[in-house]
Amino acid sequence: MISVDEALTILAEYPLTVDTEILPFESALGRISAEAIRADRDFPAYNRVAMDGIAINSKRFAQGQRIYKVEKTIPAGTPSYQLKDGSACVEIMTGAVLSEGCDTVIPYEEIDIENHHVTIRGDIQPGQNVHHQGADRKAGDLIVPEKTLISAVDIGIAATVGKTHLKVYRKPAVCLISTGDELISVDHSPEPHQIRSSNIYALKAALSGYYGTIEHRHLPDNEEVVKRTITHLLEDFQILIFVGGSSMGKFDFLPKSLRAEGIEEHFYKIQQRPGKPFWFGHRDDRFVFSLPGNPVSSYLCLEKYFKFWLNKSLGLAKLPDSARLTEDYRFKPDLTYFLQVKLMIEDGVLLATPLTGGGSGDHANLADVSGFLELPQDRTHFKAGESFNLIRFR
């Protein structure tokens, strides 16, 4: 067995190589950018008026002038206007180009207008209420870096800079494979010795979005069928994720079948609870993960290890989360323990309350759980008020 940190180190040594494709920018939401988005011109592109009101030359105000004649009214969306009379003003709207000869905008709330003449009631600051050209970004400046998970905001930025198409990383082809004769379809009524195949659907949902094009297969507890199916799956998919079949039972022959297909085993079993029987290996550009069959264990391993590996491969930096224990907790085995917790915020602090449930097979307990709190292997007593790493899924 290896430690949690050793498993993460090994996973990082075998990244997935992902091709790219070009998409219309409107179709790129939730994908990972394979190129940077840069400003095509200064942002803003001109000296932009920030409030409705009047624009003046502040030097006249400094010389004592307080009453100005309105020379012209300037709406947004019109070309720049040159102030003809330096002692006059222009009435101007938010978003308009600041008129040449003017440097300051005074909002309507601070002036009186009568018969096309304006009186400024209070004091001003030269340059106020003007968003100057290039203040946000200069032409060529980086706005959205490569390897960004594209959000709705990024779609808007692409439109702003005229980027009609975006280069993104292709979604890897992933196959989730459930195993075991005890599993039946969700629309069937189980016999006492059977269970519905629910676990695989939770994992598939967790992988939706940028994590890949997900398909699902099921394998019986038959070694020859497993070997034959693995051969075909490796031809069609970059990533295989098996669920179950890698423990110590007589029918858990998956690791043997994978090695027979030339899959190099990088590790098998991690010093943790839940989720000890976790297997990882690869052959060329094909990667295989075998998660434990119990739902809590498989969900943990997917969130902790598989998503770490894929995020690392795709260059996505995920900020670590942490939460504070609300009560003392003890765990004696020499293992990293991933404690199921319910989260709440109190006085701006994220708090984690243990909800241990009935073990790694207690699927229903996950309905009340917000995530896993990672309790380190070198301790047995964890005190209320201490903060630990958090794997959050709601």
Can you describe what's shown?
The chain has about 400 residues and is of the alpha/beta class. The chain has 4 domains: about 5-20 and about 170-315, MoaB/Mog-like domain (Molybdenum Cofactor Biosythetic Enzyme, Chain A), CATH 3.40.980; about 20-40 and about 145-170, no CATH class; about 50-130, Molybdopterin biosynthesis moeA protein, domain 3 (Beta Complex), CATH 2.170.190.11; about 320-390, MoeA, C-terminal, domain IV (Beta-clip, Beta Barrel). The chain is about 20% helix and about 30% strand. The chain contains 7 helices and 28 strands. The protein has helices at about 5-10, 60, 150-160, 200-205, 225-235, 255-260, 295-315, and strands at about 20-25, 35-40, 50, 55, 65-75, 90, 105, 110-115, 115-120, 130, 140-145, 165-170, 175-180, 185, 195, 215-220, 240-245, 265-270, 270-275, 280-285, 285-290, 320-325, 330, 335-345, 350-355, 370-375, 380, 385-390. The strands form 8 sheets. The chain has a 6-stranded mixed sheet with strand order 7-4-6-5-9-8. Strands 16-13-17-21-20-18 form a 6-stranded mixed sheet, sandwiched between helices. A hairpin with a 2-residue loop joins strand 24 (about 335-345) and strand 25. The longest helix has 20 residues, at about 295-315. The mean pLDDT is about 90.
